[in-house]
Write a structure and sequence with these properties.
The protein is mainly alpha-helical. It has a two-stranded parallel ribbon with strand order 1-2. The N and C termini lie far apart (about 60 Å).
Length: about 110
């Protein structure tokens, strides 16, 4: 039983490491850390989900920074469209709509 568990853990670790390298290799040359590194073109940018406000009601600086960066990419012609992602599992909490509204306003 211990041997079987160890083999399962080892297999899981190998699959996890393999998935990491496959994603890293597939994304090579397609992700950028600096806007200046992006050539103008027919690209679509993925904006990862983020809450607009913190639990205490204050503005989330990560949301603000992320929306500013996405708007700058779009206005600079680095991408032709933005895809926003995020959680909206309940009606009162809708990251994608908050992000869309912030980007349209920008």
């Amino acid at each position: 039983m211990i041997l079987l568990s160890a083999c399962g853990i080892l297999l899981g670790a190998v699959l996890l490491v393999s998935a990491h390298f496959i994603v890293k290799q597939s994304a090579s040359g397609k992700t950028f850390a600096q806007a200046a590194d992006i050539t103008d073109g027919d690209r679509v940018a993925l904006v990862l989900g983020c809450a607009k406000t913190l639990q205490n009601g204050r503005n989330n600086r990560f949301f603000t920074t992320r929306m500013k960066a996405a708007a700058e990419l779009y206005h600079a012609g680095k991408c032709r469209a933005l895809i926003v992602s995020g959680d909206n599992h309940i009606e009162e909490y809708d990251e994608p709509t908050d992000m869309k509204d912030a980007l349209i306003a920008a």
